[in-house]
Amino acid sequence: MYVKPLGAECRRIWQRGDHALIGVSAGNSYFNQERLTKLLKWAGHSFAEIDVVYVDTHLDTMLIADGRAPLHAAKSSRSTIKDLRRRIRRSVELVDPDGVRLRVRSLTEVMDLPEYQKVRLSTDLAMREDPEFAATCEKMVRQVVGHRSTGDGNVMTKAHIEAGLSYLQAEAPLFVDSPSIFDVRSSVVCYHMLTPITDQLCRRDSSFRCAPENGYLIVRPTELGES
């Protein structure tokens, strides 16, 4: 696996090997069966504890922004999430058949945790009152929605931006303080690419930063390269 920590502090946290948070997006073609299995195998050899969180929120909202009818959007979202759960389950059965080290939860389940709700208060406040963080969040949403829009001819609309921001608002606490949310000493968030929000949160010169023991790794199969 190609692994790149985002700075010296992230490398230190990675080397401790306490905990990895692996976020999996529904409807993202990157997370096929082979890549999920490779990622979980790597994490199983690198960390004492692993949480896999799949995003199951605001998918229908984005489809409605695409012009889908609400009932069709809800049905499509359920099918997408069901398929993702199946892929994750197959990978977990291969990597951790006894279910000892890998925990799998939906983002909806995590959102019910009191620790998540505490961190959510601070991230929501930063989105409203920290201009740098708010701009970074909007930049990330525009990147994601922009890639999405080019695939099917849809143009980016205000509804897309609002749906994307709601999606990111639900996800952001995981990037900000995963040690508190998952009750671990330290944690690294693993993703296959650099994103605007992780780039800002791990910088010491930014106004709104991640928790001290929260790190970030770019992790992907070696054959996909370093770019």
TrEMBL record:
<dbReference type="Pfam" id="PF16715">
    <property type="entry name" value="CDPS"/>
</dbReference>
<protein>
    <recommendedName>
        <fullName>Cyclodipeptide synthase</fullName>
    </recommendedName>
</protein>
<keyword id="KW-0808">Transferase</keyword>
<comment type="similarity">
    <text>Belongs to the CDPS family.</text>
</comment>
<dbReference type="InterPro" id="IPR030903">
    <property type="entry name" value="CDPS"/>
</dbReference>
<dbReference type="InterPro" id="IPR038622">
    <property type="entry name" value="CDPS_sf"/>
</dbReference>
